[in-house]
Amino acid sequence: MQHVGIIGSGIIGLLSALALTDAGYQVTIVARDLPGDETQDWASPWAGVSIFPHPDAGGESLQTENFKYFWALAHRDPTSGVQVIKATEHYDDRDDDSTIWYKTVVPRYRLIPKEKLPDGVKLGFTYTSMTINPAYLLPWIQKQLQARGVTFIRKTLSSIEEAKKLTGAKIIVHASGLGAYTLAGDKNVEAIRGQTMFVKTDFVDQLMMHQGSHYTYVIPRMFTNGAIIGGVSQPGNLDRNVDTDLRADILQRVNTMTNGGLLSVDLDKDVQEDIVAFRPGRKGGYRLEAEGDVVHAYGFAGLGYIFSYGVALKVRELVDSIVRQDEVPRSRL
Q: pTM for the complete prediction?
C-alpha cells in the first residue's frame, strides 16, 4: 500500500485524504491545527459555509464535482452538518446570466424578474444549494478518516522535507493554506481578512448573497437556530481585532439584501460571536499541480469549500500519476 503524507487538515487536506483512502492509499496528516481547534490561524472552522458555485473563479469541473459530492452527503448523512436549502444570488456587476455556467448544474434554477429585484441589483436568481456547519463537518470527516486508519500528527512544520521525514511518506500533498508562503516559498500567497457575525435569527430558511460592488451574505447554520452574516474581503489586512464600525454596516447591507429579513436583530443582544479570520488567498489564482513528488493544493481564498472535493479528486489523480511514473522501469542505457 502506497503511503501519502498530507500537510494541512483544513477542508482541502481532509477531503484529499478521504479521496486517497477511497483509492487504497495509506495516509498520514500533519498539521498545526486540527478539527476542533478554534484559532484565527486557519480558515476552515470559520467559513460560512455556503455552496455557492463561483461564476468567475475558473475550475468549473472541480466546482461541479464538489457540488455533487455535498448534495449526496446532505441526503446520505445529515449528521455531517450539510443542509439542503434555497439559495438566492444578487449581482450588480452584470446584466444577464450568460456567465452563470452552473445554471445547468444546480437544481431548480430560476431567474428573478428584473422588476422584482432590489434597487441597484441587475441580476438575480434562485436555485437549491447547501449550507455547511464546519463545527460538525470537520470532525465528521476526521472520524471517517480515523476509521480508515488515517493518523493525525500535530506539528508546526518548517519545510515539506520535514513532513516526508516525519511521516515516512515519499509523496506529499501540500495543502497548508497560508503556510505555503513559507513551506513552498510562494510569495504570491496572501491573507485575505474576513469579518462576520453569528447571530440568533429566524431567517434560517434561505441562503442569500450579493456580489459586485459589495460582498454581503446571510448563511443559516444547521443545528444552531442562527446564521452567519457578513462580510468583507480585505487582501493583505492582518488586523485580528473586530472592526466595531463594520458590524452595523454588515447588518444594514444584509437587511437591504433580504428586504428587512433581519430587522429584529439587535447588535447588542443577538450577536453570539464576532468572527475575524483570514482566507488563504493567492495572487494569480489557486495552485493545483504536481512538482516532483509533491502535489500542491492551496490558494483557494474564500472558495475552499466550494472547490474542495473536486480538488480532492484532482489531488488523487495527480498522486496516481506520480505513482505510475515511479513504477516505470528505468532504462539502463
A: 0.95
